[in-house]
Amino acid sequence: MTTDQDDLRSTERRLQAAQLAADVATLDALLDDRLVFTGPDGQLCRKSDDLELHRTGRQRLTRVEEEALDVLVVGATGVTWFLGTLAGTVDGQEFSARLRYTRTWVRTDGSGWRVVAAHVTPVTPVPPA
Fold it and tell me: The domain that contains 70 carries what CATH number?
């Protein structure tokens, strides 16, 4: 039996895979039209901004490595906390960073889980053992 948390966890991982593949159609389906994303610099972006980055190739991810994923579901609202490493290019500049994404999801009968708000912040790399 699949729980709401399992379903949201699976949807979060579909989002990660779509980001890595620059799959704009899947991203369009998983991002709510009301999406507001707060970037690591504090700037706010909308769904159209995010899709445009992937569509034009201005952002290309080469790595999305999940370290931890926590999930909370309360009714038709869910929150995911992703911790992991992303790498790729943005506007031709290479990057690699350990990041924490907090995403707020809403579930509707017609669309399933969709991200309505998100925030990303850099996290200190894990020191070598």
Answer: 3.10.450.50
Specify the pTM. 0.92
Could you report the per-residue pLDDT of 64-80, keeping only the tens digit for each?
Answer: 999 999 999 999 999 99
21-41: pLDDT as tens digits? 999 999 999 999 999 999 999
Count of the separate structural domains present in the chain: 1
Q: Any idea which residue has 């999801």 for tokens?
A: 105
CB contact burial 69-90 (16+ within 10 A = b; e otherwise): bebebeeeebebebebbbebee
Could you tell me if residue 22 is left (phi over 0), alpha (psi between -120 and 50 degrees) or otherwise beta?
Answer: left
